Amino acid sequence: MSNQNISLLPDHVANQIAAGEVVQRPASVVKELLENAIDAGATQIKLIVKDAGKSLIQVIDNGKGMGPIDARMCFERHATSKITKADDLFSLTTKGFRGEALASIAAIAQVELKTRQESDLTAQQIIIEGGKFLGQHECQFSVGSSFTVKNLFFNIPARRNFLKNDQVELKHIIDELERVAIPHANIHFIFISNEHEILNLTPGNLMARIKSLLGNYIQKELIHIGEDTPFVKIDGYVTLPESAIKSKKEQYFFVNNRFVRNPFLNHAVYQAYKELMSSESHPRYFIFLELDPKHIDINIHPTKTEIKFTDEKTVYMLLLSAIKRALGKANVGPSLDFEQEVSFNAEPPKLNHQYRAPEINVNPNYNPFKSNSGAGANTLEKLNKQNWESMFEGFKQNEANQSDEKENTQHALESIKTESASFDVFQINHKYIITSYNNNLLAIDLQRAHERILYEHYLNTGVSQAIHSQQLLFPEHIELSTNDFTLLKDLLDEFKLLGFDINIFGKNNIAVNGSPSDLEQFNVKQMIEGILETYKLNTLDHKIEKHDNLCQAMAKNACIKYGKVLEIDEMKMLVSNLLHCENYLYTASGKTIMMEMLYQDIEKHFKK
Questions:
Q1: How many domains does the chain have?
Q2: What DSSP letter does each residue of 47-98 carry, written as one string?
Q3: Does the predicted model carry a pTM greater than 0.70?
Q4: What's the pLDDT score for residue 344?
């Protein structure tokens, strides 16, 4: 008799495994509930969260609601009203269709549903806890639905421990809300976090919705794109090249009003901006593609953010063409008008105009192969020779001192620490500083070195006492996106410790009265936005203490950048200050600052 090793999983375990694919964090729940509300035909949706969704997520809508049977059935796995057969997967017009979102949420949280159809006199209340059905009762509720999700992952503590801090999780929730709110500008969205209203997005057109989320300033930085073909319709906005930013944020693709990620389409956008902006800059875009559902496959991943097209090359080329045409009309890129006769552009000649043949002056005695004849030696050649010889002056001096270097050990790292120490430095490619000690070569990354110096300065000074603030002549008013504004409010005390004098000046607006005295040469708006963006990136993969993270973000944005030409004294000061740091080998993020090449290794190389 053979041993049986395979058995069916209990339903509650299977549901928890399925939930892991759909619900990764509170923002995943928000996404599913918002999409269900839109599919229900809601014109007003209210989202309420507490503790970044860990304690409470509630979505209230005025959609069509559900009857008693549907209210109970919606929590069953693979129960859906969106499709009835496999062919329906290729004619989808709704957000959800899998029928596993509510079942997955109910498996790892305490869920309460209140819902009523217009034809019903009373509403239905359903309570489920950890996948266990606890009861269904009649109650009073307006037409629509209210999903309340409490204590997410309460029965899976290990999953809850992987959640980030509240600020990071709140950012993800706002991201999901923006991805739903932008393509549905006709719906009124209200977002409340910890009893504070964060967003109140009234119905309007697409540009009004974008402005309400990112700020009024965004309108002058965007241009409209449009392309209408039998295969696909393209609409939306892309940023002007001069308004490109240093991070990949505010990049949105919507296919049939569903937010998607697609590297192929993203490449088309960057190809359209080729040679119009630097490789370190990134465009912002809000692009909508509308095409027949039979030409797309959205059923690739449980989160439904990945998509495939039946003809990707056609979509790619049409998108590339639409963006290039829009940039051409905005006079920021090459544009050809094939409908205009070019020959008509020439001005007619004036009366009695005389045409003259072009003249070319040529030196008949010039011989490119004769460079050193007679007394008339080429002056440029002499200058070039002098310039080349000057490049080796440092090497000649080193050769003269070689005998002394063998007798006395030259410049150890400890001696370099003092400002009065004498050591040679020079730059390579405006990126690395080269110096020597004990006959060894030392290559220092100047940007990472300065970043480490600033990081320790902010970290040590900000803890013991606030950094001195330089007051601005006129306060600078800055409009931030909802995400950045929410983050800055949470970090306001930390910003003040580091020398920023900032006041809240209305919704999504701040007034900067002063900035750290050592940041006078920086643009205040760009500096604050850069710090916030770096802060958010730091929190994605690491759990960093708030003050430490902000110091890292400030150092990253305020440090010397590659390409800056430094004077000899500046390089010496940089090296000296770096070696005074507690850790002069690595940046705060763990990147290597310097590389040492031993004299013995150099000797071995030339003995080959």
A1: 3
A2: EEEEGGGTSEEEEEE-S----HHHHHHTTSTT--SS-SSGGGGGS--SS--S
A3: yes
A4: 47
